[in-house]
């Protein structure tokens, strides 16, 4: 919703703030004079220009008038909910239902001529007229103020040329009417975005993972909800020397689940078929390289232990032709 702003009919801008996390524009209107009965959210230039390709699509938006209904939030006289301006024409749409006080309102209108009227005359709009306006759209306004005693106004949750995509921090719940509604991502406060159609969280923070950032990521342990996921000390709590896919605290001691090639209570040694020293800084375990003759080598040096030729300790796999017989 970057660039959207709130205006009076006199085109005086009312201070509003963009919440970059939820991609929602919010304005405090408690201090406005009671005489102000009309306010509009005005689209930025990126929504204007040639929008012929949006014909037949849906303009969907969500807004809310925050307040306390019991303190007398009264519906202001009905008027246009959406205004499109272009080619010296001003087209309006009046929604069939009014919003409720302090409730999220979802507006949805298809960009077809039957849903629009000419402002002032209420004359029906022809297909040609709607196409002309969309070909050079110079203004798009969405009604913001619906109730007296409103404290705050908000607009957000949808993005895109026809507002068909959910904004960052929201995903489309397909169990809701039409094409679904945008609802907040459920990431336990550990991610700012999720997949549009599945709600699967993206880029979980604080070393967490999972569809809802509900667990520690591989190689970490503790409590994801408390944001305390720490690197497994297997054998050490440094990235270069931690060789566990996971671990857990058992009665005050850490139990490690080692990656392939590592063994020991803390993954401090190499498993059979591997060699190296995980306890040295930057050390790791490598597979034995015995050219298929054996999978057994010295766990420290990697020198192969050839079961067929016990005396052969070469690790380079290079054999030289004999020049005489024994």
Automatic annotation (TrEMBL):
The reply to whether DNA-binding figures as a keyword in the UniProt entry is no
Laminin EGF-like domain boundaries: 185-231, 232-287
Where it sits in the cell: the answer is:
Secreted, Extracellular space, Extracellular matrix, Basement membrane
Q: Which InterPro entries match?
A: EGF, Growth_fac_rcpt_cys_sf, Laminin/Netrin_ECM, Laminin_IV, LE_dom
- Which BP terms from GO are recorded? animal organ morphogenesis; axon guidance; basement membrane assembly; cell migration; substrate adhesion-dependent cell spreading; tissue development
Q: List the disulfide bonds.
A: 204-213, 258-267
Q: What is this protein called?
A: Laminin, alpha 3
Q: Does the keyword Repeat apply?
A: yes
GO CC, any one term: laminin complex
Q: Highest taxon of the source? A: Eukaryota
Q: Where is the major localization of this protein?
A: secreted
Keyword vocabulary terms for this entry: Basement membrane, Disulfide bond, Extracellular matrix, Glycoprotein, Laminin EGF-like domain, Repeat, Secreted, Signal
The Laminin IV type A domain extends over: 1-196
Q: Which organism is it from?
A: Nothobranchius kadleci
């Amino acid at each position: 919703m970057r660039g959207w702003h709130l205006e009076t009919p006199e085109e005086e801008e009312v201070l509003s703030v963009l919440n970059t996390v939820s991609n929602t524009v919010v304005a405090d209107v408690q201090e406005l004079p009671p005489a102000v009965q009309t306010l509009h959210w005005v689209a930025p230039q990126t929504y204007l220009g040639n929008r012929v390709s949006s014909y037949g699509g849906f303009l969907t938006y969500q807004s809310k008038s925050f307040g306390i209904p019991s303190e007398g939030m009264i519906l202001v006289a009905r008027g246009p909910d959406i205004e499109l301006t272009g080619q010296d024409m001003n087209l309006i749409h009046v929604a069939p239902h009014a919003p409720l006080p302090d409730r999220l309102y979802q507006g949805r209108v298809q960009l077809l001529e039957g849903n629009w009227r000419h402002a002032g005359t209420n004359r029906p709009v022809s297909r040609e007229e709607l196409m002309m306006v969309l070909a050079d759209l110079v203004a798009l306004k969405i009604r913001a103020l619906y109730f007296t005693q409103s404290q705050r106004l908000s607009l957000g949750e949808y993005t895109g040329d026809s507002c068909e995509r959910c904004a960052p921090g929201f995903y489309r719940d397909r169990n809701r009417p039409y094409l679904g509604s945008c609802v907040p991502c459920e990431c336990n406060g550990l991610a700012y975005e999720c997949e549009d159609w599945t709600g699967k969280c993206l880029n979980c923070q604080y070393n967490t993972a999972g569809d809802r950032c509900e667990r520690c990521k591989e190689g970490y342990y503790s409590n994801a909800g408390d944001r305390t996921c720490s690197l497994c000390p297997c054998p050490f709590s440094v990235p270069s020397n931690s060789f566990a896919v996971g671990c857990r605290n058992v009665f005050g001691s850490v139990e490690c689940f080692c990656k392939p090639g590592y063994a020991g209570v803390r993954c401090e040694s190499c498993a059979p078929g591997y060699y190296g020293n995980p306890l040295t800084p930057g050390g790791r375990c490598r597979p034995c390289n015995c050219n298929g003759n054996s999978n057994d080598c010295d766990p420290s040096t990697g020198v192969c232990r050839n079961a067929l030729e016990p005396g052969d300790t070469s690790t380079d796999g290079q054999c030289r032709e004999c020049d005489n017989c024994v």
